[in-house]
Specification:
Strand order of the largest sheet: 1-3-2
Helix content: over 70%
Number of strands: 8
Shape: flat
Strand content: 5-15%
CATH architecture of one domain: Orthogonal Bundle
CATH class of one domain: Mainly Alpha
Radius of gyration: 55 Å
Largest sheet: 3 strands, antiparallel
CATH topology of one domain: Hypothetical protein af1432
């Protein structure tokens, strides 16, 4: 048993030794194979590297050859282009040289012609001198024969003709004067009557009051407001007087300025429609009424231009609005815009008959009273103001002159005389003007102008038919104490400078208003 175990151990030891030897031999063989493969890979890599280097060198040579070919080609193209330019320059130089030769030749020809003309001029002058000498010789011979000088012969001849024909000439002149005056009178009457009959316009005299219709009499109380605060706010901000009487469903706006009355009427209409009548809403409505009125002024001006066939695009929009203001301006009770349209139309008709410039007469007639639209705010008479306004907006002198011509005794152009005649026709028609209204408006304007001449005055409104003047002052310029003295000074100046019936109440209003917004 022991021997078996020993033999088994010996066998196992021999097997282990044999296995170890085999594994060592196997490992050596694998190492040799790996080394051989490595050498083979390195050899192949070196060969591949050399092959790549060869290919790179080949491509580099190809690229160099291609680059050289391209550069040679570009050089050849540049040389060809240079040659082409040189040929073109040579051709241009040849053309210029040819032109210079032609110019030189023409200059020589011109000099030759000039020389010939000078020679001819000299010959003509010599001939003129010879003719004058011959005339002098002939006159001297005639004077020797007649024994009279030229002046004496002319004087004697004229006297003889005058004696022989004096009676006939005087009779003829008288007859011509009579015929001329009669024909001119007939033609002028015919021309004016034709122009008047061709243009028929309605006659309406503007008043100083505007009626506002109410839905019911209860609305009168709402317009008056608590302790009269609403009606006072409207009157203060519009410069008009609101008359609330027993007339059913009606109140009256009184004021000499049609624009102020129109602002008040539109504001009242909006307030009545809205139903909210209180001071803050009144101020908003008056601002909205002023904006809508400004749009209407522009539209009135455009309509006037359309009626006379004047392109609206040819007139500055600001001037169109100024023209529209005349819709709310009166002259002796006659609507100023309607009067201007009539003058432009009549002047254009008369210009057609007389052969004058129709466009100047139409445009000059329409704008001849444009100064009246702003004469409340500017110093000077309306003809000069109108002239300056038209000059400012680029009108030509012959049109600007129409503003002055219609007040001149003898206009210096026929168009000025036509516009003056058309202005007289439009204003002289029965019922067209009303003297009393114009005098009233003039008195109101003088009252406002006098009160507004003091320093620190912001706005002035003459109300209650001139029995009261309300003056708004700048609170930062005039204190409460100084406002008392200002009222006295204004009252004294009105007493010394103006004529008026009864008495005038002077009211100074000083208000400080602070506005801030919470955002």
């Amino acid at each position: 048993m022991f021997i078996s175990i020993l033999l088994l151990l010996i066998g196992l030891g021999g097997g282990a030794a044999a296995g170890y030897a085999y594994r060592k031999a196997q490992a050596a063989r694998l190492a040799d194979d790996a080394e051989n493969r490595a050498e083979k890979i390195i050899t192949e890599a070196k060969a591949k590297h050399q092959e790549l280097l060869n290919e790179a060198k080949t491509k580099q040579q190809e690229y160099l050859i291609e680059a050289k070919e391209k550069s040679i080609k570009m050089i050849e193209e540049a040389k060809q282009e240079e040659q082409t330019r040189r040929r073109e320059l040579q051709e241009q130089q040849k053309r210029l040289e040819k032109r210079e030769e032609l110019f030189d030749q023409k200059l020589i020809e011109i000099e030759d012609k000039k020389t010939k003309l000078e020679d001819q001029k000299k010959q003509i002058e010599d001939v003129k001198v010879s003719i004058e000498l011959i005339k002098l010789e002939q006159n001297e011979k005639l004077q020797e024969i007649a024994k009279l000088t030229k002046e004496q012969a002319e004087e004697r001849l004229l006297k003889q003709i005058e004696v022989d024909s004096q009676e006939a000439l005087q009779s003829r002149l008288r007859k011509m004067d009579e015929i001329t005056e009669e024909e001119v009178e007939i033609k002028s009457r015919k021309l004016l009557s034709l122009a008047i009959t061709r243009f028929a316009s309605s006659v309406s005299v503007d008043g100083t009051t505007t009626a506002v219709e109410l839905p019911n009499d209860e609305m009168k109380g709402r317009i008056i407001g608590k302790e009269g605060r609403n009606i006072k706010a409207i009157e203060l901000q519009t410069g008009t007087e609101i008359i609330v009487d027993d007339t059913p469903n009606m109140i009256t706006i009184s004021g000499f300025s049609p624009i102020r009355r129109q602002v008040a009427k539109r504001a009242l209409d909006a307030l009545i429609k809205d139903g909210r009548i209180q001071p803050a809403r009144i101020e908003e409505s008056i601002m909205e009424a002023k904006k809508s009125l400004a749009q209407e002024l522009k539209k009135n001006g455009e309509d006037a231009l359309y009626q006379l066939g004047i392109p609206v695009s040819s007139i500055d929009p600001k001037l169109v609005s100024i023209l529209g203001r005349m819709r709310f301006r009166t002259s002796y009770g006659q609507n100023a815009l309607q009067h201007s349209i009539e003058v432009g139309t009549l002047a254009g008709m008369m210009a057609e008959e007389l052969g004058a410039d129709v466009f100047i007469c139409k445009k000059g007639g329409l704008f001849h009273d444009i100064g009246k639209a702003v004469d409340h705010d500017m110093q000077g008479a309306h003809p000069e103001i109108g002239y300056n306004i038209m000059k400012k907006f680029g009108f030509p002198e012959e049109i600007c002159y129409q503003s002055i011509a219609h007040h001149e005794d003898r206009p210096r152009t026929i168009e000025g005389a036509i516009v003056k005649a058309a202005d007289a026709i439009s204003g002289a028609r029965p019922g067209a003007r009303k003297q009393s209204l114009e005098n009233f408006i003039q008195r109101m304007e003088e009252l406002e102008r006098t009160a507004g001449s003091f320093e620190g005055v912001e706005k002035v409104y003459a109300i209650q038919a001139g029995r009261e003047v309300r003056i708004f002052i700048h609170p930062e310029k005039i204190s409460d104490l100084a406002s008392y003295q200002l009222a006295k000074d204004i009252a004294n100046k009105i007493e010394s400078e103006l004529s008026y019936p009864g008495e005038i109440k002077v009211t100074i209003i000083r208000e400080t208003r602070v506005i801030e917004y919470a955002r």
